[in-house]
């Protein structure tokens, strides 16, 4: 495994693991429900392969994903970078809104530490920016947790450039997590440059377009009935066929190198800068092993040009979220 450094000296494996798909039911289901034993074996195998970076969140399940990861890393915690996120208000297991207050950061941190079974969260994100709480107050509250030893590094998710600048002036921000992939490149215009200006590492989530870029599905009808992606505009009947052109361009490069589409899509991201660490979501050893192998794939200049030409910024058909989801990103 190769390793990279995010902001403020936080070293992680070049490919991390997005644990979100490792749920049996709950609020965000991709494909069929995960087999919990296989999910645990996937985490263990990833560690054996040198993966150190594991990403979860309070909202996944909610709560159950943190518990799964916590159980899986028992006895294997040393050397791992465990990332989780806060930023929502709950009534029981129902999300009732965003909450970026310092009080909620503390409350969520305590809960996450308990569910993960660890003493310190290595990377603690605000999951979504709360427009009603100044970002200076949010990161200030998060830094109190750093001072107390409950958190090592703080980070933001889906913050816009102005919010990033303000946050970086108020506190050391180690990473920004936002959607970034071959078919979602808007961060390149303003957000990536601001990250680099302030030494903030970049962690792309959904680096495989929620599975679309892998080319394993050629029709929306292949999605299970309760699959979350049935609500994704890019997977809609009107957009699906148009977006297959991006998949086909990736497939051409994959055939040249005799690798999977997933490896090409991840290698393309890795080629965008040494400060970029994608976290493909997985729940099975086979897909995890395939994704992790992307760390050893080097695309040539012709490959990068061909992919960029097939998927220029803004050319993907459909927004990446529905109306409500789009109101919560890049604030």
From TrEMBL:
CDD domains, per the entry: AKR_AKR13A_13D (cd19076)
InterPro entries: AKR (IPR020471), Aldo-Keto_reductase (IPR050791), NAD(P)_OxRdtase_dom_sf (IPR036812), NADP_OxRdtase_dom (IPR023210)
GO cellular component: cytoplasm
Signal peptide: none
Keywords: Oxidoreductase
Domain NADP-dependent oxidoreductase intervals: 22-309
Pfam families per the UniProt record, alphabetical: Aldo_ket_red
GO molecular function, one term: oxidoreductase activity
Protein name: Predicted oxidoreductase
Source organism: Sphingopyxis indica
Lineage of producing organism: Bacteria, Pseudomonadati, Pseudomonadota, Alphaproteobacteria, Sphingomonadales
């Amino acid at each position: 495994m190769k390793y990279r450094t995010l902001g403020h000296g936080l070293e992680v494996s070049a490919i991390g693991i997005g644990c979100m798909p490792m749920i049996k039911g709950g609020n965000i289901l991709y494909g069929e429900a995960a087999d919990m034993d296989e999910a645990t074996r996937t985490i263990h195998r990833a560690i054996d392969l040198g993966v150190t970076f594991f990403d979860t969140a309070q909202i996944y399940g909610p709560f159950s994903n943190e518990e799964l990861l916590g159980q899986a890393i028992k006895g294997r915690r040393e050397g791992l970078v465990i990332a989780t996120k806060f930023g929502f208000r709950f009534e029981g297991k129902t999300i009732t809104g965003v909450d970026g207050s310092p009080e909620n950061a503390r409350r969520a941190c305590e809960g996450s530490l308990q569910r993960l079974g660890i003493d310190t969260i290595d990377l603690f994100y605000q999951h979504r920016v709360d427009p009603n709480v100044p970002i200076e107050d949010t990161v200030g509250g998060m830094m109190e947790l750093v001072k107390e030893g409950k958190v090592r590094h703080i980070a933001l998710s889906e913050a816009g450039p102005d919010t990033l600048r303000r946050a970086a002036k108020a506190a050391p921000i180690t990473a920004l997590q936002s959607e970034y992939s071959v078919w979602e490149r808007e961060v390149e215009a303003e957000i990536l440059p601001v990250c680099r200006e302030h030494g903030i590492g970049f962690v792309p989530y959904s680096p495989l377009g929620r599975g679309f870029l892998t080319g394993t599905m050629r029709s929306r009808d292949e999605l299970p009935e309760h699959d979350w992606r049935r609500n994704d505009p890019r997977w809609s009947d009107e957009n699906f066929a148009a977006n297959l052109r991006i998949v086909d361009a990736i497939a051409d490069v994959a055939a040249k190198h005799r690798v999977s589409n997933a490896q090409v899509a991840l290698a393309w991201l890795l080629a965008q800068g040494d400060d970029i660490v994608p976290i493909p979501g997985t729940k099975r050893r086979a897909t995890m092993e395939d994704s992790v192998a992307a760390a050893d794939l080097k695309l040539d200049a012709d490959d990068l040009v061909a992919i960029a030409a097939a998927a220029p910024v803004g050319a993907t058909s459909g927004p990446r979220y529905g109306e409500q989801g789009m109101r919560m990103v890049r604030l």
